[in-house]
Specification:
Blueprint (H helix, E strand, L loop, with lengths): L2 E9 L6 H6 L5 E8 L6 H7 L3 E4 L5 H10 L5 E4 L4 E3 L1 H12 L5 E10 L2 E2 L8 E7 L5 E5 L2 E5 L4 E3 L5 E3 L5 H21 L6 H18 L6 H37 L2
Parallel strand pairs: 1-2, 1-4, 2-3, 6-11, 6-12
Antiparallel strand pairs: 4-8, 5-12, 6-7, 6-8, 9-10
Length: 261
């Protein structure tokens, strides 16, 4: 018997991954909503074949796109997923229990990243994400693109059974190419909200992020994949503030040119 549960997803060219994501929840969800931003592969066809309601929309940014998917859900409960996330059997059972015997308006799940073939136990762990929510709790995606987070009105709790398996990157090249895009997107979001860069941010913030990954998270205990992931954290923060500095100085130079005419 399916739960009174909608699954909300956004997609773009997720043909290699979306089938596994949907199949892991297809037996418990009454509704699967996929908002696709004009994929050029078989993403939409696969999702539709698995029973999902597929909507094709222009890309509006991570936050706006995910909110569009939320708005289309009709069931009392909503499970928000990315196409590179798979609900483990243990987590699926925990979701069933939470929906049938709720004790909160929303539930956080632990997302465990598989990186370079290894399930990380230290780096990016634990990674609690609010993903299972009551529709009446007014869920909304907020934050800075692309680093969004789900927020609700009311009490939240943690689901302890199982994990949300996160297999985000095909290889190092895929990771670093996306890191470059995400860093620039973050910088643009910061710039729009008046955040500033500078020498301190460019020098200190990446070093602090790297130190936290190694000393607090214990990334080195995950071996070479953990060490590379920690290094990518340094690079991501460094690039973000470099891009932000570039945006600030480009705008300043533009104002100077306009003032001189």
């Amino acid at each position: 018997m399916r739960l009174p549960l909608s699954v909300a997803m956004i997609s773009f060219n997720e043909e290699p991954k979306i089938r596994r994501t949907i199949e892991a929840v297809a037996q418990i969800a009454s509704e699967i909503v996929v908002v696709d931003s004009h994929s050029t592969d078989a993403t939409r066809a696969i999702a539709a074949d698995l029973g999902a309601q597929v909507f094709e929309e222009d890309w509006k940014g991570h936050i706006a796109q995910k909110n569009s998917a939320l708005e289309k859900c009709t069931q009392p409960w909503i499970l928000a997923l990315d196409c590179d996330e798979v609900v483990s059997p243990g987590l699926r059972e925990a979701i069933i229990t939470a929906v049938r015997r709720p004790r909160a308006g929303g539930y956080l799940v632990n997302r465990q990243t598989v990186y370079l073939g290894r399930a990380l136990k230290h780096m990016w762990q634990p990674d609690w994400k609010l993903r299972l929510v009551r529709r009446e709790s007014n869920p909304v995606w907020t934050g800075y693109d692309p680093h969004d987070h789900l927020r609700i009105e009311g009490k939240t709790a943690k689901l302890r059974g199982g994990v949300l398996e996160h297999d985000s990157y095909r290889d190092l090249r895929d990771h670093f190419e996306r890191m470059l895009v995400y860093a620039r997107t973050s910088a643009m979001s910061y710039h729009e909200r008046g955040k500033r860069s500078g020498i301190g941010k460019i020098v200190v913030s990446p070093a602090v992020a790297f130190a936290k990954a190694l000393l607090v998270k214990g990334a080195i205990l995950d071996g070479v994949p953990g060490l590379i992931a920690a290094g990518s954290t340094y690079a991501s923060v460094f690039l973000k503030y470099c891009f932000l500095w570039e945006l600030e100085h480009r705008r300043s130079a533009q104002k100077e040119r306009q003032g001189g005419t």
